[in-house]
Amino acid sequence: MISVKVPASSANLGAGFDCMGVALKLYNIIEVEEIEKGLIITSSPDDPSIAKDENNLVFKAMKTVFDEVGWYPRGLRINLINEIPLTRGLGSSAACISGGIYAANLLSGGKLSEEEMIYLAAKMEGHPDNSTPAMIGGLVFAVLEDKKVNYIKFVVPTRLKFAVFIPDFQLSTEYARNILPKYIEFKDAVFNIGRATLFASAITTGNYELLPAATQDRLHQPYRKKLIPDFDKIVNLSLEFGAKGAFLSGAGPSIIALVDENYEIFEQNVKNALANMELAANWDFMILEADNSGATVFSVQSTSLKR
Ligand SMILES: Nc1ncnc2c1ncn2[C@@H]1O[C@H](COP(=O)(O)OP(=O)(O)OP(=O)(O)O)[C@@H](O)[C@H]1O
Ligand SMILES: N[C@@H](CCO)C(=O)O
């Protein structure tokens, strides 16, 4: 059996719609083994949206690898241990896709290169901003091209923390993409290009004082925040307590605030505020560090059946 550990991820990071994302230290474990025949899928915790047949996202990701390399297991057992909350903007689908591709590549003899796996994952997800950090870790700037992903990975220092607010409701990426406008105004494109560029420079040089300005966005948040009644309250309280920017995580509904050395005071202040505020949803709160490793092998016993 092969066990793969794959991190959560947060995409967009403010202004970088579909091109910036970071892996976070919150993990799913995907265990796979070849069996004599059939497909057996188990999951814990389980959820009605986790398919137990060929429609399962991990299985579909694995199948893209088998199709690519021309090797198929006789049968397959997949066990999913899920820590990443589903459909909350924390890259649960990208973890399934990148982790499934990584596991299938190991099972089928490691024929694909890292670049090939990154491309397959981005193509399947439709954009590279969750799948690339889920595959290789770190904070990634990435663009999906015709046949490859052009990307740069930045190793995030532990000094930078990611304060994650997770509400008790789901918001599917598909729905949150469909409500975006087909066209945007030129001035909004200019607004975002400036902020995304500033973000890349600020994060890689450690100039965190620029982050509150660099994480502003006009491409998706103004539209999506209407689906998240507490959005402004959470962002404002984060900034008030000293966050270096606060924004929607991926397609939402989770919100992330960037915090540095003073994260313990920030954490205490936020917990007190959340306990005393009137909010439309219940919000879980946790402080995470970036994961700089991506998908990794947790353990390998035997790989596939003898042929
Ligand atoms: N552990 C899992 N096992 C199988 N399928 C999963 C698992 N986690 C997520 N999925 C699938 O992915 C879907 C959620 O994907 P979606 O893109 O809507 O949200 P997300 O990836 O959590 O958020 P975002 O893309 O904004 O970060 C679920 O409905 C389910 O079909
Ligand atoms: N960039 C994507 C991330 C979610 O998968 C979006 O915002 O729709």
Number of domains: 2
At the first level of CATH, the class of the largest domain is Alpha Beta
Order of helices and strands: EEEHEHHHEEEHHHHHEEHEE
Hetero compounds: adenosine-5'-triphosphate, L-homoserine
Number of strands: 11
**What is the oligomer described by this structure?**
single chain
The average pLDDT score comes to 96
Q: Helicity range of the residues?
A: 25-40%
Q: Give the percentage of residues in beta strands.
A: 25-35%
The profile of the biggest β sheet is: 7 strands, mixed
Give unreliable regions as ranges.
none
Outline, from the CA principal axes?
globular
CA radius of gyration: 19 Å
Alpha-carbon distance between the two ends: 16 Å
Number of helices: 10
The CATH architecture designation of the largest domain is 2-Layer Sandwich
**Which structural class do the helices and strands define?**
alpha+beta
CATH topology of the largest domain: Ribosomal Protein S5, domain 2
Domain GHMP kinase N-terminal: 56-138
Binding site for ATP: 85-95
GO molecular function, one term: ATP binding
Family: Belongs to the GHMP kinase family. Homoserine kinase subfamily.
